[in-house]
Write a structure and sequence with these properties.
Blueprint (H helix, E strand, L loop, with lengths): L1 E7 L9 H9 L8 E7 L2 E7 L13 E2 L5 E9 L2 H10 L9 H12 L9 E9 L4 E6 L8 E4 L4 E4 L2 H5 L13 H7 L12 E3 L4 E6 L2 E6 L13 H19 L6 E4 L4 H12 L6 E7 L8 H11 L2 E7 L1 H15 L7 H12 L5 E3 L4 H5 L3 H12 L4 H13 L3 H10 L3 H4 L8 H7 L2 H9 L2 H11 L5 H28 L3 E3 L5 H8 L3 H4 L7 H6 L6 H4 L10 H4 L5 H8 L2 H4 L6 H12 L6 H18 L1
Parallel strand pairs: 13-14, 13-16, 14-15, 16-17
Antiparallel strand pairs: 1-3, 1-9, 2-3, 4-5, 5-6, 6-7, 7-11, 8-9, 8-10, 11-12
Helix pairs in contact: 2-3, 7-8, 9-10, 10-19, 12-14, 13-14
């Protein structure tokens, strides 16, 4: 696990300024505190920060150049099946100088060219410079576990693991891409391949970018495709889940440094611990985080139960409001883009505590996307059932009644009057009327012209003939997972110089899930049905079938109490008002409502706070 940066002046062939690469690399030094390296070849410059995981010897430092000096790689991540891939290359006569996965990727590219991507199982983002072919390659893993950003300049292309590296050499990019403001206010992050920085892009998951003969070509090499025409029966999908999960955990245990598990006590992380135990791992180290704000924010009793069952060495960290407030500036800085993932701050403190004992940690992230685990899926299915009532009865008669029953029921009434593209924009969406009231008169029209609905439309077009469950899960894999959850996981673990692995996002799981009939992912309104059945031999029912809690943060409580004055000072300021996005009297009304417990507005207040802090950190 590392940080990578680079410049390729393919347009002008101008020599790269070495100090630019150094500056780009040093700003993300926490991603790789164990070593650094540079490679310069005229118009090309590469920089690398290393966190040593596999082959800790200096011989595996990067950038790494082949023995014939023709090919150079700069790589972030882990390819878990490197042992098997190496064996095939050895049989072909390839001689290796290290025991790293880096050299395996390099030699596999030399053997097969870009076609080798289909053989990699892992999380990765890397560049390869092929001097002989005068060809430059950027690649991101299938799911988007590892980040990769780039921007085009007058001279060529600049890229890196984090946006802040790009800003070190091209400050002109410190402009807001206002076309994504409505998306951010709709879901709390910035979906699509653009970023909130004008001119800075994400290389999409499962894509490669090639520069050759002065031209850039971006290609997709992997995607989730759906074929549920064959129903193999429930027992097959249960058995296959066990088989895939065991192998995914097994190969992700490959490490030359100590590793552990983030354990919340939910089914996903508990399943990881259970499988490690089945595989014979001794002295499993587990780590949990919680808040002292009551049972709604504390799952430690379940984590302790799992820890006791499998005899783990368990560590807990309890968050405070001061922890949250103190880390906010660093949170904004590390995330690069505004992301309203409050649990990320808890995750940082957990990662920091975990780093005291291990360098690699496994997590249950991704199981909800693979197996349909989010509660919102249930509600959307209920809305679809409700929509079967003729609109002539539903809209003028039933919906007005629902709207009088309170905010929750009013939301469902509103959803029933929209198609799926308008009503579901991801796990974290919320009712649009509140958002639209917030926009200033001047910004409202622009927001509608560049609405989030338009940004996510291509994902629905891609699967227009699929069932409701498939449409929602595909959208969430392509947006919520990659642009929120995995950003949180990468930035907060890397901020603590900790490698985080996600067995449920082994691409074989996603391929397996996409060919599984939806009724097995979501059966009888039971989320993650097949996964729960598969784990019944390993975990007790009170872990498997308890209500999903997630990784909650007591924002609503803190925004009324310890943090109210701070939030009010930031979002209700003249500095924020001058940006022109929002109606200041409406913000004041939301603050007053929340303070007086008239309405829980913590979500939108958090969005406004993060957006304003982001502007102050990166734009002003």
């Amino acid at each position: 696990m590392c940080g990578i940066v680079g410049i390729y002046n393919y347009k002008t062939n101008k020599d790269v300024n070495e100090s630019d690469i150094t500056a780009m690399s040093e700003v993300i030094s926490y991603r790789g505190p164990d070593g650094f390296g540079y490679h310069f070849d005229g118009a090309l410059g590469l920089g690398h920060r290393r966190l040593t995981i596999i082959d800790t010897n200096e011989r595996s430092n990067q950038p790494m150049t082949s023995t014939d000096n023709e090919t150079t790689i700069c790589y972030n991540g882990e390819v878990y099946n490197y042992v098997e891939l190496k064996e095939t290359l050895v049989k072909k006569g390839v001689i290796f100088n290290t025991t790293s996965d880096t050299e395996v990727i390099l030699e596999l590219y030399k053997d097969k060219g870009i076609e080798f991507l289909s053989e990699l199982n892992g999380m990765f983002a890397f560049s390869i410079w092929d001097k002989k072919r005068n060809e430059f390659l950027l690649v991101r893993d299938r799911v988007g576990i590892k980040p990769l950003f780039y921007t085009l300049t007058e001279d060529g292309i600049v890229f890196g693991s984090e946006i802040k590296s790009l800003l070190r050499v091209d400050s002109s990019k410190r402009l807001v891409n206002q076309k994504l403001i409505d998306s951010y206010m709709s879901v709390g992050y910035c979906p699509t391949d653009e970023t909130l920085f004008s001119g800075i892009h994400k290389l999409a998951p499962g894509h490669s970018l090639t520069v050759k003969n002065g031209q850039i070509e971006i290609k997709q090499y992997w995607d989730m495709t759906f074929n549920k025409s064959v129903d193999r029966g429930e027992e097959y999908y249960i058995d296959k889940t066990k088989e895939l999960f065991e192998d995914a955990v097994k190969i992700q245990l490959r490490s030359d440094v100590p590793l552990g598990v983030f354990l919340s006590g939910g089914i996903d992380s508990s399943a990881v611990v259970a499988m490690m135990n089945k595989l014979g791992v001794q002295d499993i180290k587990t780590f949990s985080v919680a808040w002292d704000y009551g049972e709604d924010f504390n799952e430690t009793k379940y984590a302790r139960q799992v820890s006791k069952q499998f005899g783990t060495d368990h560590t807990e960290y309890f968050m405070s409001a001061s922890d949250f407030r103190d880390f906010l500036p660093d949170y904004i800085r590390h995330m690069d883009e505004p992301v309203t993932e409050a649990a990320a701050i808890s995750l940082y403190y957990l990662a920091k505590k975990t780093k005291e004992k291990v360098t690699v940690v496994l997590s249950g992230e991704g199981a909800d996307e693979v197996y349909g685990g989010y509660p919102i899926y249930k509600y959307m299915h209920l809305v679809e059932q409700y929509k079967k009532i003729p609109a002539l009865i539903r809209n003028p008669i039933l919906n007005p009644i629902l709207r009088r029953l309170g905010e929750k029921w009013s939301k469902y009434a509103d959803l029933s009057e929209k198609n799926i593209e308008e009503s579901y924009s991801g796990v974290s969406f919320y009712e649009n009327s509140q958002k639209e009231k917030l926009y200033s008169t001047a910004f409202s029209k622009f927001a509608k012209e560049h609405s989030n609905t338009k940004n996510i439309h291509p994902y629905y077009v891609q699967n227009c003939d699929e069932d409701l469950q498939t449409k929602m899960q595909y959208l969430d894999v392509k947006t919520w997972l990659v642009d929120d959850l995995l950003v949180k996981a990468d930035r907060m673990s890397m901020a603590a110089s900790l490698e985080l692995r996600v067995p449920f996002l082994d691409h074989r799981f996603l391929e397996f899930s996409s060919n599984m009939p939806s009724k097995y992912r979501f059966k009888g309104y039971e989320n993650k049905y097949i996964l729960k059945k598969a784990m019944e031999d390993f975990l007790p029912s009170d872990i498997l079938y308890r209500k999903k809690q997630g990784f909650p943060t007591p924002l609503s409580i803190m925004f009324k109490g310890e943090l109210y004055d701070y939030v009010n000072k930031i979002i209700n300021s003249e500095r924020a008002h001058k940006r022109g996005y929002f109606d200041q009297p409406e913000i004041q009304r939301l603050l007053k409502q929340h303070k007086n417990s008239e309405r829980d507005n913590h979500r939108v207040l958090w969005q406004l706070l993060v957006l304003e802090l982001w502007h102050r950190e990166f734009i002003d």
